[in-house]
Amino acid sequence: MKILVIAPHPDDETLGCGGTLFRHKKEADELHWVIITSMSEENGWSLEAKEKRDSEIDTVAKKYRFSSVSNFCFPSTQLDILPLTDLIGKIKEVYELVQPEIIFMPYINDVHTDHQITARALQSTFKWFRYPFIKKIFMYETPSETEFNFIEKNNFRPNVFVNISEYLSDKLETMRIYEDEIDDFPFPRSEKTIKSLASFRGSQSGYEAAEAFELVYERIE
After folding, report:
1. pTM for the whole thing?
2. Degrees (nearest 5) of the Cα angle 83, 89, 92?
3. What is the DSSP letter of 115?
4. How far apart (Å, rounded) are the C-alpha atoms in residues 18 and 129?
5. Number of neighbours of residue 173 by Cβ within 10 angstroms
6. Closest by CA position to 4, among listed 118, 93, 127, 100
7. Do 74 and 38 touch, CB atoms closer than 8 A?
C-alpha cells in the first residue's frame, strides 16, 4: 500500500497522523511525504533557521523511513498570494510519480490559510477518472490549527479512528525533533496536549490512544 501525507508545514505530518504513519510503516506500507512550504531568507528567515529546519526535515524523514520526500518550497504563510494552479500542478506531479492509494491531508477549515489553501488545491485532484489509483482520502486534525476554528460552523467531525497505542511514543519522539515547534503546556503543541488528544480520541473509539480523521473519499473495488 502506498501512503502519501501532505503537510503544509514540516511538523503537520507528525501532529496530524504521526502515529498512523508509524503503524503503516510497521505494516510494510510505503510512505511518501509532501511538504508544501519552507523557510527562506527572501521571506525573512535567517540562514541559520533555514539550515536548522532542513536538518530537522532530514532527521524526520529518516525516522519515518519515507520512500520519497517532495518539498515544494512555496513561501510559508503566503500561499494565499500564489496562483492556486501552481500548487495543483505540483501535487499532480507527485501523484503521477508516487501513485498513492491512501492520502492524508489537512483539515480544510483549519485557521491557518496555508492549511485551507492546501486542502482547496487537493479538492481538484480527487476525480477518479484522472487518478484511479487513489482509494481513500483522510483529513487529519492539527493541534494549534484545527481546534482554534471558532467561527466556521463546519468543525472537525472525525468518523475514522486509528489505534496508535503502540506508536504514541514514536510520535512524541519525532515531534521533539522540531525543537522550535513544541513547548510546555498549555501551549497547543506540547507533549501533554498531544498525549491528551490521543487519550481523548482513544476514549471515543475504545483504545488507549488514537488518532482521528474525517474520511473524505473512498473507492471500494
Report:
1. 0.96
2. 150
3. H
4. 30
5. 13
6. 100
7. yes
